[in-house]
Amino acid sequence: MSVLNTEGLKAYYIIDVLGEKRYVRAVDDVDLEIRENEIYGIAGESGCGKTTLIKTLFGMVEPPLNVMDGKVKYKMNAEYADIFAMDNKRMREIRWEYISYIPQGSMSVLNPVQKVRYSFEHFIKAHRRIRNKEEEFIKPVERHLQALGLPVQILDSYPHQLSGGMRQRVTVALATVLQPKIIIADEPTTALDVVMQRGVIQLLKDVQSSLKNTIIMVTHDMGIHANIADRIGIMYAGKMIEEASTEEIFGNPLHPYTQYLIGSLPKIGDKSYKTSAPGAPPSLINPPEGCRFYPRCDRATDECKAAIPKLVEIEPGHKAACFLYSGVKEDE
Amino acid sequence: MSFIKRYLLPRLLQYFLVIFVGITVVFIVPRLTPVDPVQEMINTITQRGAYMDPEAIEQLRQSMKEMYGLEGTVFSQYISLWRRLIIGDFGPSLSQFPTPVVKLIGISLPWTLGLMLVTTLLSWIIGNILGGIAGYFSSSRWSAAIERFMMVLRPIPYYIFALILLLVFGYVIPIFPIAGGTSIGLKIQFSWKVIADLLRHAILPALSMILLGMAGWFQTMRLVMSNIVREDYVMYARAGGLRDTKIAFNYVIKNAMLPQVTGLALSLGQIFGGAMVTEMVFSYPGIGGLLYTAINAGDYNLIMGITMFSILGIATGALLVDLLYPLFDPRIRYR
User: Most CB atoms within 10 A, among A288, B129, B151, B317?
Assistant: First the structure.
């Protein structure tokens, strides 16, 4: 059962250069189906549109970002609701209550002039009515922190008194305090050292297994994906190019880009020289016609230059967008 | 208490050092001007037509120097200055001899304090509220209108602006008096008539200072706000579905106020210097006008008295900011 899906989602940045409009196609025709009770990883290199995709999934679309086409639907009360058809009030209500967000730079997401306690209070009061502060706010929050293994004293700290790892864990605690159906995590570990990374990843895993909800996890770190994700989607230049279970992605990558990506990972005992994909990722303002990876692909054919391959199921549960496996084109 | 030893004492030392240096400079500078207070006084006497032979003038000069405390070397004058300052004696005014300086300041200070305290606070409050609103709702039509109004108002030179107000509301449409702090011959006592008269005289000077001061505060606040609404913690609060008013007050304005609080404390300190141009244009009694006449007459003692107040005001303002700031911004710590 899917809990969030997108249909032909296109989100472009519109940049006005001397009266001439340019489109940065950060998310270009993406179809997603994210299931209940899973951790879905989105992987891809910097600048491939990962962050834009999750901003759009979360409905945080502010100029210059524009949703050009497509829909993002949340499953609510057994029905699918298009979030771009909702008014601001409804959108405000479902945020945090239904879908919450763990930001990338935890260093600056907490208000520097208020104690952490007030962040919790504001985020909860925005969605719940609290009559008895002691029973309905303080105790549940303290229980929640204890369940996550965080010291209760952090509530009386200012953000600058906490370490980076602790701040990131506060954002995890904030994102889960209302027990939302979906949590979107945008590179929650990038600013942390590996020890802290492990702590945060374990925390997310524990939260997911106790809440049985969905986590959409974005990072370029394949090691973290291997650790946490049930399924992985690989993004390249604004498009989803492969999607499969974690075992499949690591054990049997189909798309040449994914093969390069997996081939670049070090393995214990393996001393072979790693090759990288030649060239650099394309500009999203002027992406190549046809398959966006063909200029860097050593197996490209004339067909790859002429048409865009569509993301289709190649093996059960394993989708790829490559003419090596299927001839289905995107109709553009 | 390591706070007292490591922070308060060095800070107080710095405070007194600033005052010491300030007073020394104020002692030296008037003595470098070409105006000689004794000669000024003799000129005034001879201009009135009294004939005096050179010997009598020389005698007068000698006895005046003695009275004014100007005999001896500059250094011994400096020492005796400190001896007098410590007991709070600024000596007699030289131009309005023998009225003590303290008394002259005492007459002028209430006017200046009344006018400037009200205008400084009002322009700060109004400017920050408008700037806060315009910065937070920067896309609304009202914000753009207010902003344009302030943009026109702000660069007008103060003396021209004050003169225009005076001409328009004092002469063309004579609804306000054009000069003075009260009507001529009015006895200051506590009655509604006197208060109304005082207010009527204060409105034009106050309006000129509030309008221009407000435009300044507005623009800085607007600028700070437009940076803070883009901060990560504001975006995050928005992602959390917090109400707009909550975000505006607890997340944006609370952070934007920090530099403004510093500014307020410093401009409160400047009150003691008076508003010279305002007092000149509107012929309003006050410290500024007093200082102006003191400088013209080479009245060393009066200059010293007024600037002493001004130095104390600004230095104390800065000290208070340093001591109180950690209350507003938890990231600042006494070091």
Answer: B317
